[in-house]
Amino acid sequence: MITKRAFLGMGLATFATPAIAQSGFQLDPRFEPRVVPLRYPFKAGQIIVVPTAHYLYLVQSDRTALRYGVGVGKAGLEFKGNATIKRKAVWPSWRPTDEMIERDPRSYAKYADGVPGGPDNPLGARALYLYQGNVDTYFRIHGTTQPRSIGRSVSNGCIRMINEHVIDLYERVPTGTLVTVL
Q1: What total of structural domains would you count in the chain?
Q2: pLDDT at position 156, please?
Q3: Which is catalytic among the residues 67, 86, 142, 160?
Q4: Which of 62, 58, 53, 64 is nearest to 30 (CA)?
Q5: Tens of pLDDT, residues 31-71
Q6: Which is it for strands 178-181 and 47-50: parallel, antiparallel or unpaired?
Q7: For residue 73, is it within any domain?
Q8: Total-model pTM
Q9: Active-site residue (options: 158, 159, 161, 179)
């Protein structure tokens, strides 16, 4: 377990973040965070997601970015376009959308009342909530309990990250950050 503590609510509950290495999972090295050059200039602080490559870029300057590997939505369920991070949460609670429950009741109906935040929650250690204007898109950039999904198109539309990576991103971006999913 990683020794860094994450707090839920007012700090009454703490959870250690499960380390990838302890899970027996080895992340493909190309999905580890690294600084990379950009071909096109973007605004520093902006997030760019390229689902076909399974990468999320946090723009550092007009020509460099910190790149993370991600898992993205299945065909037909993916988010595309621009959104703004309007809310951030540590160890977020989760409830499947009504559409998820309708599409796959065997998998999701049992969670209709929600799942509290913690190490077993599908949103993982952190969540960044994507809005268009003042409307919640119900898409998130979040951690995952399924590290093998990184580099794959398997989610219900959200952008998944390794918990340690989403914690790093969470600390780097404020609410108001522009997210563009190509």
Answers
A1: 1
A2: 84
A3: 142
A4: 53
A5: 999 999 998 889 999 999 999 999 999 999 878 999 999 99
A6: parallel
A7: yes
A8: 0.85
A9: 158
Q: Is residue 174 part of a domain?
A: yes
Contact (Cβ atoms closer than 8 angstroms) between residue 165 and residue 50: no
Q: Residue 17: inside a domain, yes or no? A: no
CATH classification of the domain holding 140:
2.40.440.10
Distance CA 64, CA 15 (A): 34
Dist CA 23 CA 39 (whole Å): 36
Going by the DSSP 8-state scheme, the letter that residue 91 receives in this structure is: S
Active site residue 158: yes
Question: Do 160 and 71 meet the contact criterion of CB atoms below 8 Å apart?
Answer: yes
Strand locations in the chain (E) = 5-8, 13-16, 34-37, 47-50, 55-61, 64-69, 72-73, 81-90, 126-132, 135-142, 153-155, 159-160, 178-181
Q: Residue 145 belongs to what domain range?
A: 31-181
Indicate whether 36 belongs to any domain. Answer: yes
